[in-house]
Amino acid sequence: RMNHITVYRARLGALPGCRVQEYPKDRETSGNYFVLFVTNRAKRSRDEVYEALKAAGIQTKRYFYPPVHVQKIFQRYPMRVSLHMEATEKSSREGLALPLYSHMTASDLEQVCVQVESLLS
Asked: Which of 47, 101, 118, 119 places its Cα 20 to 30 Å from the Cα of 108?
């Protein structure tokens, strides 16, 4: 997984209007997910990329979506939730978790990268 994350970061992190999650130098990721953030400066929206990848047979997940503080169950507890959580809402609009699993082949990884690059470059 960590090798796949390295490839994703190198190939997709510099796409126009995209960014990847950064970690402090004294920390490391578990490699559980890889989230590409597709900002409003990208060629296509996160949801357009999600739908195009779905049509191509590539399963992704809109990550941090919907944000917890807007989920119906939490509306009963307004004292626990701020109405405006800008960073959370931005991550919810932009986050797209790409395929990342233990038996993912180099060919699978290449297919995802090529599709994302074709949509966003």
From this structure: 47
34 DSSP β-pair partners: 98
Phi-psi domain of 102 (left: phi exceeds 0; alpha: psi -120 through 50; beta: other): alpha
- DSSP letters, 39-56, are -TTSSS-HHHHHHHHHHT
pTM to 2 decimals?
0.87
d(CA 71, CA 67): 7
Tell me the pLDDT tens digit for each residue of 45-91.
Answer: 999 999 999 999 999 999 988 887 778 887 777 666 666 788 888 99
